[in-house]
């Protein structure tokens, strides 16, 4: 794991409350709408990549999902989220790590979720490592729900440059192992009142293509 990368996020989470982070919203509504549409069984293993302090984990627990992992570079963010959950935190798998070099179980997850993480990967090698990790860890027939800034979204976030995607360019980052099954556009209103356009894709892990 890159110490520079993780310390950027640890410092940010230590210094800023939720309302001071542009990506905060009380619930990840668009992610939840897309996840609900998949009608996954309650025991389906799920991983929220770069979950940070988001409330997705509570919303998934509330829906009755029993096998939820939350991964993030920032131990500070995960500690805050654990504290917020109280005793429920014991029902979640917490992983501190960099998704571009994470060791994940093979073919395990039925759902991979990422809101506002992949777009920070400006380096082509990092994007390839992320895509390979996803292809390795998601089971055949499993899904990925990924939300990034849209082509008319911001060019920077939290002091870092970001890549921007439409549905086609985002899905192509994960081909051929994943095929697109749905996409949407979401307008996020930041806590300070600005609008940020997001592209979401729902991808399915093909069973006829093994990982590279
Ligand atoms: C903009 S925040 C989004 C947080 C959360 N997904 C949400 O929607 O509220 C990006 C998160 O990704 C994490 N992150 C950034 N790069 C990462 C990487 N390479 N591996 C794992 N997590 C990463 C950061 O620590 C941060 O929590």
Strand content: 25-35%
CATH architecture: 3-Layer(aba) Sandwich
In helices, the fraction of residues equals: 25-40%
What is the alpha-carbon Rg in Å?
16 Å
Shape from CA axes?
A: globular
**Strand elements, count:** 9
> Structural class of the helices, strands and pairings?
alpha/beta
Account of the protein in words:
This protein has 212 residues and is α/β, with parallel strands linked by helices. 29% of the residues lie in helices and 28% in strands. The protein has one domain (2-11, 25-205): 3-Layer(aba) Sandwich (Rossmann fold), CATH 3.40.50. The protein has six helices and nine strands, in the order ααβαβαββαβββαββ. It has a seven-stranded mixed beta sheet. It has a two-stranded antiparallel sheet with strand order 6-7. A hairpin with a 2-residue loop joins strand 6 (156-157) and strand 7 (160-161). The structure holds S-adenosylmethionine.
């Amino acid at each position: 794991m890159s110490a520079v990368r993780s310390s950027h996020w640890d410092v940010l989470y230590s210094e800023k409350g939720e309302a001071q982070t542009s990506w905060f919203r009380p619930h990840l509504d668009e992610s939840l709408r897309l996840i609900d549409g998949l009608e996954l069984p309650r025991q389906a293993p799920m991983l929220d990549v770069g979950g940070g302090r988001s409330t997705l984990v509570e919303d998934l627990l509330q829906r009755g999902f029993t096998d939820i992992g939350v991964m993030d570079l920032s131990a500070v963010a995960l500690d805050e989220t654990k504290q917020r959950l109280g005793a429920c935190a014991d029902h979640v798998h917490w992983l501190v790590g960099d998704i571009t070099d994470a060791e994940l179980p093979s073919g395990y997850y039925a759902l991979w979720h990422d809101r506002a993480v992949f777009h920070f990967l400006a380096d082509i090698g990092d994007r390839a490592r992320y895509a390979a990790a996803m292809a390795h860890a998601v089971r055949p027939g499993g899904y990925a729900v990924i939300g990034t800034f849209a082509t008319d979204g911001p060019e920077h976030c939290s002091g870092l440059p970001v890549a921007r995607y439409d549905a086609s360019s985002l899905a192509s980052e994960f081909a051929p192992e994943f095929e697109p099954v749905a996409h949407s556009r979401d307008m996020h209103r930041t806590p300070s009142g600005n609008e940020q356009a997001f592209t979401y894709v729902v991808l399915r892990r093909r069973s006829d293509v093994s990982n590279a």
